[in-house]
Amino acid sequence: MAQKKTPRRLFLSRSGAVLGSFALGIPPTRPRSKVQEENPQKTIRAVIDEIILKMTGAPMMNTVDTVKIGDSEQPVTGIACTCMATCKVIQKTAELGYNFIITHEPTFFSHRDQTDWLAENSVYQYKKALLEEHNIVVWRCHDYIHHMQPDGIETGVLERFAWNEYQMPGKSNIFKLPYTPLTDIVAHIKSAFNIPCLRVVGDPHMTCQTVGIMVGAAGGRTQIAFAEHEQPDVLVCGEINEWETCEYIRDAIIAGQKKALIVMGHVNSEELGMKWMSDWLQTWLPGVPVGFVPASDPFIYI
Ligand SMILES: [Zn+2]
Asked: HSE on the CB side for 173, CA within 13 Å?
């Protein structure tokens, strides 16, 4: 059903590209690129529509995957895929001459990117002005990429774990390793993801076999239900609320269960998923420059 409607949406978007730029009186911020010459009417909105067309369960009605800022009716000059549209990522995007950022996580510091409460906030104002200065559009791709079959974020991240041969049948994120000390699993993650320091709950000398990986911030209830239902020896999470999953694992150990928790950090655990998206877009979006711009771990370890 959705696919029948979309060509009309695409057509409307392209018509709007002409109207949009003139009606809004937005001056071009950079000379027309080769891309624009080859795709004079390929607007950012048209690219978004094409991406959504390829997504499982699209179009979604209640989703955070919306345009957060900018005129999406302008011709696309290039796409930066990132986990977080930080100010540094915005600057890098502008340096590349791109005008479209696809971010996995929010831009304006809360899940739905509501900005009313930030109107007078100095950092919000700085970031908004930076985006406007470079005429950059930000679109979030969170719900759609997680609903892909298989989940695009998970695909990109699990590739780096390189545990395919240990993947349990029918379980995309559970691995049955040869018996391995927890310290070796920690060392593997640190090395593979270039993370200098990991937070761990459990006995570092514990010997582990099953590892369950939950990227991002799945939430305490989801992480705890997964730990109980799947019973992995080690739960690897992106982000946790310290008073939820962390304390659950501590209590599980006291209750006699063989358990450990490794916390990678949110960006560390999902960023490679947006690299995967960048690679994926390049396979079917000819003529549009696409790149992965890492946001990187916000923390330093002192
Ligand atoms: Zn995610």
From this structure: 23
Burial class (CB in 10 A: 0-12, 13-18, 19+), 83: buried
255 CA to centre of ligand 1 in angstroms: 31
The residues that bridge with 175 in the sheet, in sequence order, are: 167, 211
Alpha helix ranges (H) inside the chain: 2-24, 34-38, 44-53, 87-96, 122-133, 143-147, 152-161, 182-193, 220-230, 247-254, 266-284
pLDDT at residue 41 in the model: 75
CA–centroid distance, residue 152 to ligand 1 (Å): 9
Q: How far is the CA of 267 from the centre of ligand 1 (A)?
A: 9
Q: Which residue has the tokens 């529509």?
A: 49
7-149+270-292 carries CATH number 3.90.25.10: no
Instruction: Please list the residues that pair with 200 across neighbouring strands.
Output: 262
| DSSP category for residue 60 | P
Q: Are 297 and 87 in contact (CB under 8 A)?
A: no
Q: How far does residue 50's CA lie from ligand 1's centre (Å)? A: 21
Report the separation in Å between the CA atom of 81 and the middle of ligand 1, taken as the mean of its atom positions. 13
SS3 200: strand
Query: Can you give the residue ranges of every domain in the chain?
Result: 7-149+270-292, 161-263
Between CA 224 and CA 220 the distance in angstroms is 6
Instruction: Give the model's confidence band at 100: pLDDT under 50 very low, under 70 low, under 90 confident, else very high.
Output: very high
Whole-model pTM? 0.86
Over residues 204-223, the pLDDT tens digits come to 999 999 999 999 999 999 99
- The reply to whether domains 7-149+270-292 and 161-263 share a CATH topology is yes
Residue 270 alpha carbon to ligand 1 centre in Å: 6
Residue 30 in this model has a pLDDT that exceeds 70: no
